[in-house]
Amino acid sequence: MTHYHLDDLSSINADTQKPARFAVIGNPVAHSLSPQLHQPALDALELNVRYIRVEVPEGRVAEAFEKMHEVGIQGINVTVPHKLEALDACDEVGKGARLMGAVNTIVFEGEKKVGFNTDGPGFVRAIREDFGLDLGDLRIVIIGAGGGAGRAIATQCCLEDCPQLTLANRTVEKLTSMQTLLDPLLHGEKLEGPGDRLSIHALDDPALQEAIANSELIINTTSVGLKQSDPSPLPSHWIEPHHLVYDTIYNPSCTRLLRDSQAQGARIANGISLLLHQGALSLEYWTNRDAPIDAMRQGLAEAIRA
Ligand code: ATR
């Protein structure tokens, strides 16, 4: 079975030696790679429990949490489109998740539902792994900052107190409220004065080219690149050899942006490391143990090859 529905939940653990204890909810959810990431980890930790997918219609997230708790689910991942609804359904929410407006991890503490967002902290680990650098040391441009992934990463960049952050989006209006929210977080003394460290641009704003030239890390969080035939969201000549270019897309594994960037002499990485590390952090919240990262990496690699 690829996934369960809400109405299946009452019987999922009725007759099994290996009960479902962890789950991902989404809509659709059938293609989520979370089970391939988490099941090998749970097995490596010798927990003898299952990780399942549950399709949940919009508007029924709180009900899903109640039903899942009743049948013994201990931890939940939340994917599109439920990350905001999940936040509203929590009894407590971590600071990062509150700022990001999105919860991707639920931990049951007794009767309490506590929500976290591991996308931002997972991205910190991803950049360390791929480029050997700390997010908080980099001048950063986020292309597509108005989307869900973009907002989470932008928030994390501010929480890490990065010296300069440029947010770009096709629809620039989506960035104004984020600027108001995030600007006060960049209060440190790194580089520019207060208020100068965060700027917003439309994708077609000519000033974006200069901001990119002055940056070290370029992150694509748009959906441009998901299709093999997609163009790059940026003109290739804007990318220079000093750049690190991270595409949050992992399938296809090398987008047009990454191909162009490599040809320009930049260092590149795709979104596999983000997927891996956000999952590892969720598992750490649930189990209070170090995630068996090699088992997770291997599970993911096999899922993507299949
Ligand atoms: P997610 O939650 O997965 O990040 P999303 O919220 O649908 O996805 O966000 C998609 C992002 O891709 C947005 O930043 C979107 O820009 P708009 O806010 O202007 O819609 C961006 N995007 C999608 N198609 C695009 C395109 N053809 N060119 C530029 N940006 C695009």
Q: What layout of secondary structure does this protein have?
A:
Layout: E1 4-5, E2 20-26, H1 34-44, E3 50-55, H2 61-70, E4 75-78, H3 83-89, E5 92-93, H4 95-100, E6 105-109, E7 112-116, H5 119-131, E8 139-143, H6 148-159, E9 164-169, H7 176-182, E10 198-202, H8 207-213, E11 217-220, E12 244-247, H9 256-263, E13 267-270, H10 272-287, H11 293-305
Parallel strand pairs: 1-3, 2-3, 2-4, 5-7, 8-9, 8-11, 9-10, 11-12, 12-13
Antiparallel strand pairs: 4-6, 6-7
Structure description:
With 306 residues, the chain is an alpha/beta fold. The chain has 2 domains: 4-117 and 279-305, 3-Layer(aba) Sandwich (Rossmann fold), CATH 3.40.50; 120-270, Rossmann fold. It contains 11 helices and 13 strands. It has helices spanning 34-44, 61-70, 83-89, 95-100, 119-131, 148-159, 176-182, 207-213, 256-263, 272-287, 293-305; strands spanning 4-5, 20-26, 50-55, 75-78, 92-93, 105-109, 112-116, 139-143, 164-169, 198-202, 217-220, 244-247, 267-270. The chain has a 7-stranded mixed β-sheet with strand order 1-3-2-4-6-7-5, with helices on both faces. Strand 12, helix 9 and strand 13 (267-270) form a beta-alpha-beta unit. Helix 10 packs across helix 11 (293-305). The longest helix has 16 residues, at 272-287. The structure holds 2'-monophosphoadenosine-5'-diphosphate. 2'-monophosphoadenosine-5'-diphosphate binds at residues 144, 146-150, 169-171, 174, 203, 221-224, 233. 2'-monophosphoadenosine-5'-diphosphate (ATR) is lined by residues 144, 146-150, 169-171, 174, 203, 221-224, 233.
